[in-house]
Amino acid sequence: MPAELTAELIVDGLLPADPRLSPDGRHVAFAVAPVGQREEGRKSAIWLASTDGAAPPRRLTAGLANDTMPRWSPDGAWLFFLSDRAERDRAQLQRLPLAGGEAEALTDWRGGITAFAPVPGGRTVALLAADPPGDEDERRERERDDAQVWGERWPQQRLRVFDLETCAVRTIDGLGDRHLAAMAPSPDGTRIAAVTWPNPELDNRAFPSPLHLVDTASGEAREVCTLPTGGDNLTWDRDGRNIAYIARAVEGGASGNGLFVVDLEVGTPRRLVPELPACPAALCREGGSDILVAVASGLDTMIARLDSVAGTLTELSRARGDLLAPTVSGDGAIVAALHSTPDEPLNVWVGPPAGPLARRTDLQPALREVAWGPQERLAWAAPDGLALDGLLILPPGRGRADGPFALVTLVHGGPYGRFTDGFQLGWAPSGQWLAAAGYAVFLPNPRGGMGHGHDFAARVAGRVGLEDWGDIVAGITVLIAEGVADPSRLGIGGWSQGGFMTAWAVGQDPPGAPPRFRCGVMGAGVSDWGMMVAESDVPAFEAGLGGSTGWEGPGPHPHDRVSPASFVHRVKTPVLILHGERDERVPVGQARYFARGLRRYGVPHELVVYPREPHGLRERAHQLDALRRTRAWFDRWLGVPGRGEERTTGRGAGDRPGD
Q1: Average pLDDT of 77-81?
Q2: What sign for the dihedral angle of Cα 366, 371, 377, 380?
Q3: What are phi and psi of 101, to 5 degrees?
Q4: How many whole angstroms separate alpha carbon 578 and alpha carbon 568?
Q5: Strand 169-171 vs strand 157-163: parallel, antiparallel, or unpaired?
Q6: What distance in Å separates the CA atoms of residue 579 and residue 436, rounded to the nearest whole number?
Q7: Is 76 left (phi over 0), alpha (psi -120 to 50) or beta?
Q8: CB count, 10 Å around CB of 261?
Q9: pLDDT tens digits along 214-242
């Protein structure tokens, strides 16, 4: 008898993160944390697995604090990591001997360490850390003389070098008063590549940023060039002559990722394979290995070898679904990544770059007893002929011949995200959670997302909700025509960009027409793009999606035509609105604004705000609430699957919300 899929099974599951192969490729270290956070402080442990599968994975740290970012010493004898075990939310650098023994705290930096990288040579570690508070900062806090003046007292993150022999921390002054956004030591350890911003605002990440080379010994820095769209995932080639990186293909807002390389002698960034109908997602290289690139390609991911001189990619293997956080051994013979399958959750997988990969962890064995809904790959055409893909999940034990089903469409976030042909289960509205309740679930990948190249992603710039909405409707129409979906029992939901698309969808019914959807779930969604420029932590990105800022004149503005708030007067569909109280990406005012509009027009709705939560829910109790509340909302308005057309509201089967 299959086990029941409960909300507790989902939020109490363990998820791996940040795998790192040892230099000799014999071990992979990774962090493990529960999906849901039970206490105020986050908890994570460092684990170790053998790449040949000869020994079971084992936990190296107790997981009583937030232990993250495992990184190997160049000789593979030590494992460094960050932990806030001494003071919550202030991580310090730790060192653990692989041969056995207790972890040793190496730093006691008052502001905590943000990130680090062991420097080849084995004598130093590069640190990213903000300046500690000074006497004046402490006085201001003590006396509550803490007026915030924009542009003053930025918490700038700086490059520092920790000496493993003396335990001294040396601040690199050659970068001036700039915020360090990314860094990577050279293969010989003599230089550190660094990307800096004028301040810590996240909006800087897609705008021109200087690339510096810092002399590790002297601390002197020189500017090599300006990266036109910023840069992340800095990766040296093995000769130390070129640096590859991933950045937005074009400056500012809606855009796909581009793959770039800088020849350090020439000093000019060069975009590689711009015609690639896929999207570079991550880079990795260690020791004498080649640079490997994980490339998002439709519903799958390929591993490719980068020739940084010729500027070419050579496909080595392709995996169904996603390959996250790839890492490679020093000789390039072994890769490891986070991977899932349609019926197995995320785990650590290991193998040669040419494949196949083998699973080396089993972090959620209880899920093996659950019967999963069959997952099917879909392809259809948009009204303008654009080729699209997505997934369909049916209830466990059911097939297309058992349709038509009540259909819930779930829209991914981003918009530069995607659904892959992997495990579709999580705390947010997810495919297998709803399929287990008897629903068919449609997971479309409309234009604007990842996996089909930059041009595909950039099509939504200033046009979110227009053609991308048509892509989704076209897919639903196909499923209705094929007898999979019951047109009288359609629901829609999503988180972040998916929340926006839900709010948009329920307002797109023509005046006087019955609503297309019986209900919607709007999670952390945008309702007004102009307000996003004022409140979001990435205002230029939001302006690129909405098409304007509101500063151009009295309007109407381009963003008004793509803001769900402009269409609230048309909404008849009941909407469940879920939002985190401390969301900085899509502030909670977006939810309140939409809810007030629904209240003004008498539309059934429920607004739920989760205290303390950012853009994604972290706390276990809140995740449980979101899972149960979401499914109950669909049951209420679509009819509880398996119990005919009964609804908890007692409405008749032929009634539509608003009729």
Answers
A1: 97
A2: negative
A3: 130, 180
A4: 17
A5: antiparallel
A6: 24
A7: left
A8: 21
A9: 999 999 999 999 999 999 999 999 999 99
Q: Of 616, 603, 643, 232, which is closest to residue 406 (Cα–Cα)? A: 643
Q: State how far the Cα of 257 lies from the Cα of 259, in Å rounded to an integer.
A: 7
For residue 343, what are its two tokens?
Answer: 């019926």
pTM score of the predicted model: 0.95
User: Which pLDDT tens digit goes with each residue over 252-276?
Assistant: 667 889 999 999 999 999 999 999 9
What tokens does 412 get?
């991914």
Element (H, E) at 21: strand 14-21
**What would the pLDDT profile of 94-130 be if each residue is shown by its tens digit?**
999 998 888 999 999 998 999 999 999 999 999 999 9
- Measured in degrees and rounded to the nearest 5, phi and psi for residue 588 equal -65, -20
Mean pLDDT value of segment 53-72:
96
442 in helix, strand or coil? strand
Residues 6+ apart with CB under 8 A from 147: none
Q: Where are the beta strands (DSSP E) in 164-203?
A: 169-171, 179-185, 191-197
CB 342 within 8 A of CB 329: no
Which residue ranges make up each domain of the chain? 371-638
- Residue 105 is encoded by which pair of tokens? 């705290």
Distance CA 92, CA 217 (A): 23
Task: Please give the Cα distance from 55 to 645 (Å, whole number).
Answer: 52
Q: In 10 A of CB 372, how many CB atoms?
A: 21
The CATH number fitting domain 371-638, selected from 1.10.510.10, 3.40.50.1820, 3.40.50.2300, 3.40.50.300: 3.40.50.1820
State the Cα–Cα distance between residues 495 and 41, nearest whole angstrom: 24
Q: For residues 519 and 573, what is the distance between their CA atoms, to the nearest angstrom?
A: 5
What Å distances lie between residue 412 and 407, 450, 468, 585, CA to CA? Answer: 16, 11, 12, 16
Task: Please give the C-alpha separations between residue 460 and each of 73, 254, 279, 497, 502, in angstroms, as whole numbers.
Answer: 44, 7, 16, 12, 16
What's the rounded Cα separation, in Å, for the pair 212 and 126? 15
